[in-house]
Amino acid sequence: YIRETFWGVVLLIAGLYVLIKNKTARTALAVLFILYLVLFLVTSSSCSSWRFSFRDAGEVKEIGEFSASEVAIENIAAKVTIERVPGDTIKVLSNLPVEVSSGETLKLSCSKCGEYENGELLIRVGNEVKLVSLTLKNSAGDVDLELGEITSVTLDNVVGDITASGIFGSFIVTDFIGEIELTLEKCPEIETDGYCSQIGIYRGSGEININIPENVKVAPSIEGSLASVTVNKGFETGEKTLKLTVKNFIGKIVVE
Q: pTM surpassing 0.90?
Protein backbone atom coordinates (compact mmCIF):
# COMPACT_ATOMS: atom_id res chain seq x y z
CA TYR A 1 0.00 0.00 0.00
CA ILE A 2 2.85 2.38 0.84
CA ARG A 3 4.46 1.97 -2.58
CA GLU A 4 1.15 2.18 -4.47
CA THR A 5 0.26 5.56 -2.94
CA PHE A 6 3.74 7.10 -3.19
CA TRP A 7 3.07 9.64 -5.95
CA GLY A 8 -0.16 10.88 -4.40
CA VAL A 9 1.44 11.34 -0.98
CA VAL A 10 4.42 13.21 -2.47
CA LEU A 11 2.16 15.62 -4.37
CA LEU A 12 -0.01 16.19 -1.30
CA ILE A 13 2.90 16.92 1.03
CA ALA A 14 4.58 19.20 -1.55
CA GLY A 15 1.36 21.16 -2.01
CA LEU A 16 0.82 21.55 1.74
CA TYR A 17 4.45 22.62 2.21
CA VAL A 18 4.03 25.45 -0.30
CA LEU A 19 0.68 26.56 1.11
CA ILE A 20 1.62 26.49 4.81
CA LYS A 21 3.76 29.41 6.00
CA ASN A 22 4.13 28.35 9.66
CA LYS A 23 7.70 27.10 10.25
CA THR A 24 6.71 24.56 12.89
CA ALA A 25 4.08 23.03 10.62
CA ARG A 26 6.55 22.94 7.71
CA THR A 27 9.11 21.16 9.88
CA ALA A 28 6.50 18.60 10.92
CA LEU A 29 5.62 17.99 7.27
CA ALA A 30 9.31 17.53 6.38
CA VAL A 31 9.77 14.99 9.19
CA LEU A 32 6.61 13.17 8.10
CA PHE A 33 7.85 12.98 4.52
CA ILE A 34 11.26 11.64 5.58
CA LEU A 35 9.60 8.90 7.65
CA TYR A 36 7.33 8.01 4.75
CA LEU A 37 10.28 7.98 2.33
CA VAL A 38 12.18 5.59 4.61
CA LEU A 39 9.19 3.23 4.67
CA PHE A 40 8.90 3.48 0.88
CA LEU A 41 12.55 2.61 0.33
CA VAL A 42 12.63 -0.40 2.64
CA THR A 43 9.25 -1.91 1.81
CA SER A 44 9.12 -4.38 -1.08
CA SER A 45 6.29 -4.37 -3.60
CA SER A 46 4.87 -7.51 -1.99
CA CYS A 47 5.22 -6.13 1.57
CA SER A 48 6.66 -9.50 2.60
CA SER A 49 10.36 -8.66 2.81
CA TRP A 50 12.67 -5.78 3.69
CA ARG A 51 15.75 -4.45 1.95
CA PHE A 52 18.13 -1.65 2.76
CA SER A 53 20.40 -1.47 -0.28
CA PHE A 54 20.18 -1.19 -4.05
CA ARG A 55 22.27 -2.82 -6.73
CA ASP A 56 24.38 -0.52 -8.88
CA ALA A 57 22.97 -0.55 -12.39
CA GLY A 58 26.43 -0.72 -13.96
CA GLU A 59 27.46 0.09 -17.52
CA VAL A 60 25.04 1.34 -20.16
CA LYS A 61 24.70 -1.13 -23.05
CA GLU A 62 22.72 -1.22 -26.28
CA ILE A 63 19.45 -3.15 -26.00
CA GLY A 64 18.38 -2.98 -29.62
CA GLU A 65 17.64 -0.98 -32.76
CA PHE A 66 14.03 -0.38 -33.81
CA SER A 67 11.74 1.32 -36.31
CA ALA A 68 8.72 3.16 -34.90
CA SER A 69 6.79 6.41 -35.17
CA GLU A 70 5.74 6.53 -31.51
CA VAL A 71 7.63 5.97 -28.25
CA ALA A 72 5.86 5.08 -24.98
CA ILE A 73 7.85 4.78 -21.73
CA GLU A 74 6.32 3.86 -18.39
CA ASN A 75 7.16 2.65 -14.89
CA ILE A 76 10.83 3.57 -14.85
CA ALA A 77 13.11 4.86 -12.10
CA ALA A 78 16.08 6.24 -14.01
CA LYS A 79 17.48 9.22 -15.79
CA VAL A 80 15.75 9.33 -19.19
CA THR A 81 17.55 10.91 -22.13
CA ILE A 82 16.37 11.25 -25.72
CA GLU A 83 18.78 12.65 -28.27
CA ARG A 84 18.71 13.15 -32.02
CA VAL A 85 21.49 11.54 -34.05
CA PRO A 86 22.16 10.81 -37.74
CA GLY A 87 20.24 7.81 -39.06
CA ASP A 88 16.79 6.37 -39.70
CA THR A 89 16.26 4.07 -36.69
CA ILE A 90 15.76 4.29 -32.93
CA LYS A 91 18.46 2.81 -30.70
CA VAL A 92 17.72 1.98 -27.06
CA LEU A 93 20.53 1.79 -24.50
CA SER A 94 20.30 1.20 -20.76
CA ASN A 95 21.93 -0.34 -17.72
CA LEU A 96 18.57 -1.60 -16.45
CA PRO A 97 16.43 -4.66 -17.26
CA VAL A 98 14.20 -2.71 -19.62
CA GLU A 99 11.30 -4.59 -21.19
CA VAL A 100 10.77 -3.79 -24.88
CA SER A 101 7.72 -4.23 -27.10
CA SER A 102 8.39 -3.16 -30.67
CA GLY A 103 6.03 -2.20 -33.46
CA GLU A 104 4.54 1.05 -34.74
CA THR A 105 4.73 2.09 -31.08
CA LEU A 106 7.99 1.31 -29.30
CA LYS A 107 7.01 0.49 -25.71
CA LEU A 108 9.60 0.55 -22.94
CA SER A 109 9.02 -0.32 -19.28
CA CYS A 110 10.98 -1.53 -16.27
CA SER A 111 9.19 -3.38 -13.51
CA LYS A 112 12.41 -4.07 -11.56
CA CYS A 113 14.02 -0.62 -11.82
CA GLY A 114 13.34 0.02 -8.14
CA GLU A 115 16.01 -2.53 -7.25
CA TYR A 116 18.82 -0.49 -8.84
CA GLU A 117 20.57 2.84 -8.38
CA ASN A 118 22.26 5.06 -11.00
CA GLY A 119 19.89 3.78 -13.67
CA GLU A 120 19.87 5.33 -17.14
CA LEU A 121 17.71 4.99 -20.22
CA LEU A 122 19.15 6.50 -23.39
CA ILE A 123 17.14 6.65 -26.61
CA ARG A 124 18.90 7.79 -29.78
CA VAL A 125 16.42 8.81 -32.45
CA GLY A 126 17.68 9.13 -36.02
CA ASN A 127 17.14 12.51 -37.65
CA GLU A 128 15.30 10.80 -40.50
CA VAL A 129 12.76 9.22 -38.11
CA LYS A 130 9.40 11.02 -38.24
CA LEU A 131 8.44 10.75 -34.59
CA VAL A 132 4.73 11.44 -34.08
CA SER A 133 4.37 11.12 -30.30
CA LEU A 134 6.29 10.57 -27.09
CA THR A 135 4.67 9.44 -23.82
CA LEU A 136 6.43 9.16 -20.47
CA LYS A 137 4.36 7.86 -17.53
CA ASN A 138 5.25 6.95 -13.93
CA SER A 139 8.86 8.10 -13.94
CA ALA A 140 11.29 8.96 -11.13
CA GLY A 141 14.47 10.69 -12.26
CA ASP A 142 15.62 13.61 -14.38
CA VAL A 143 14.43 13.81 -17.97
CA ASP A 144 16.40 15.34 -20.87
CA LEU A 145 14.58 15.43 -24.22
CA GLU A 146 16.02 16.51 -27.56
CA LEU A 147 12.80 16.13 -29.48
CA GLY A 148 13.46 17.40 -32.96
CA GLU A 149 10.15 17.74 -34.80
CA ILE A 150 7.26 15.89 -33.13
CA THR A 151 3.48 16.20 -33.02
CA SER A 152 2.78 15.58 -29.34
CA VAL A 153 4.60 15.01 -26.05
CA THR A 154 2.81 13.79 -22.90
CA LEU A 155 4.48 13.44 -19.49
CA ASP A 156 2.35 12.01 -16.68
CA ASN A 157 3.27 11.30 -13.05
CA VAL A 158 6.90 12.41 -13.20
CA VAL A 159 9.18 13.26 -10.26
CA GLY A 160 12.42 14.96 -11.36
CA ASP A 161 13.72 17.90 -13.36
CA ILE A 162 12.73 18.06 -17.02
CA THR A 163 14.66 19.69 -19.87
CA ALA A 164 13.07 19.55 -23.32
CA SER A 165 13.55 21.31 -26.64
CA GLY A 166 12.19 20.87 -30.12
CA ILE A 167 9.39 21.68 -32.54
CA PHE A 168 6.16 20.33 -31.10
CA GLY A 169 2.43 20.75 -31.70
CA SER A 170 1.55 20.02 -28.07
CA PHE A 171 3.44 19.47 -24.83
CA ILE A 172 1.38 18.25 -21.86
CA VAL A 173 2.67 17.68 -18.32
CA THR A 174 0.41 16.18 -15.63
CA ASP A 175 1.00 15.26 -11.97
CA PHE A 176 4.65 16.23 -11.56
CA ILE A 177 7.15 17.62 -9.08
CA GLY A 178 10.31 19.37 -10.25
CA GLU A 179 11.71 22.10 -12.43
CA ILE A 180 10.98 22.30 -16.16
CA GLU A 181 13.08 24.05 -18.82
CA LEU A 182 11.06 23.93 -22.05
CA THR A 183 12.16 25.40 -25.39
CA LEU A 184 9.96 25.68 -28.47
CA GLU A 185 12.57 26.16 -31.19
CA LYS A 186 10.03 27.24 -33.80
CA CYS A 187 6.39 26.75 -34.67
CA PRO A 188 5.41 23.61 -36.59
CA GLU A 189 4.39 24.17 -40.21
CA ILE A 190 0.85 22.89 -39.52
CA GLU A 191 -1.17 24.70 -36.85
CA THR A 192 -3.74 22.96 -34.62
CA ASP A 193 -6.98 24.78 -33.73
CA GLY A 194 -5.42 28.05 -34.82
CA TYR A 195 -2.39 27.74 -32.49
CA CYS A 196 1.21 27.29 -33.54
CA SER A 197 1.71 25.15 -30.44
CA GLN A 198 -0.06 24.25 -27.19
CA ILE A 199 1.48 23.76 -23.75
CA GLY A 200 -0.58 22.29 -20.88
CA ILE A 201 0.48 22.21 -17.22
CA TYR A 202 -1.88 20.21 -14.98
CA ARG A 203 -1.64 19.24 -11.30
CA GLY A 204 1.96 19.80 -10.33
CA SER A 205 4.39 21.91 -8.37
CA GLY A 206 7.75 23.47 -9.16
CA GLU A 207 9.31 26.13 -11.34
CA ILE A 208 8.85 26.28 -15.12
CA ASN A 209 10.78 28.32 -17.69
CA ILE A 210 9.34 28.38 -21.21
CA ASN A 211 11.41 29.74 -24.10
CA ILE A 212 9.58 30.57 -27.32
CA PRO A 213 10.54 32.08 -30.70
CA GLU A 214 10.15 35.72 -31.61
CA ASN A 215 6.90 36.90 -33.26
CA VAL A 216 4.88 34.44 -31.17
CA LYS A 217 2.33 35.75 -28.70
CA VAL A 218 1.10 33.86 -25.64
CA ALA A 219 -2.57 33.18 -24.86
CA PRO A 220 -2.57 32.08 -21.19
CA SER A 221 -5.44 30.33 -19.39
CA ILE A 222 -4.92 29.92 -15.62
CA GLU A 223 -7.41 27.99 -13.47
CA GLY A 224 -7.36 26.76 -9.87
CA SER A 225 -3.65 27.45 -9.41
CA LEU A 226 -1.46 29.14 -6.82
CA ALA A 227 1.00 30.22 -9.45
CA SER A 228 3.05 33.23 -10.44
CA VAL A 229 2.91 33.49 -14.24
CA THR A 230 5.19 36.02 -15.95
CA VAL A 231 5.10 36.64 -19.70
CA ASN A 232 7.98 38.87 -20.72
CA LYS A 233 7.31 41.90 -22.86
CA GLY A 234 7.45 41.22 -26.56
CA PHE A 235 5.26 38.12 -26.31
CA GLU A 236 2.01 40.03 -25.93
CA THR A 237 1.73 40.46 -29.68
CA GLY A 238 2.90 38.32 -32.56
CA GLU A 239 2.05 36.74 -35.89
CA LYS A 240 1.38 33.33 -34.34
CA THR A 241 -0.13 32.24 -31.02
CA LEU A 242 1.03 29.82 -28.36
CA LYS A 243 -1.74 28.50 -26.11
CA LEU A 244 -0.63 28.08 -22.48
CA THR A 245 -3.07 26.26 -20.16
CA VAL A 246 -2.33 25.96 -16.45
CA LYS A 247 -4.65 24.12 -14.04
CA ASN A 248 -4.13 23.14 -10.40
CA PHE A 249 -0.46 24.11 -10.40
CA ILE A 250 1.59 25.42 -7.48
CA GLY A 251 4.74 27.35 -8.29
CA LYS A 252 6.25 29.78 -10.77
CA ILE A 253 6.07 29.99 -14.56
CA VAL A 254 8.15 32.35 -16.70
CA VAL A 255 7.74 32.72 -20.48
CA GLU A 256 10.70 34.35 -22.19
A: no
Distances (CA, A) of 19 to 89, 219, 248, 251: 47, 27, 13, 10
| C-alpha distances in Å from residue 74, one per residue of 41, 111, 168, 175 | 20, 9, 21, 14
pLDDT tens track for 52-80: 467 888 899 999 999 999 999 999 999 99
Who contacts 75 (Cβ-Cβ below 8 Å, separation ≥6)? 109, 110, 111, 113, 137, 138
Cα–Cα nearest to 130, from 187, 95, 77, 87: 87
**What is the distance between the alpha carbons of residues 16 and 97, in angstroms, rounded to a whole number?**
36
Which helix (H) or strand (E) segment is 30 a member of?
Answer: helix 23-42
Cβ pair 51, 44 in contact under 8 A: yes
Contact 73, 109 (CB under 8 A): yes
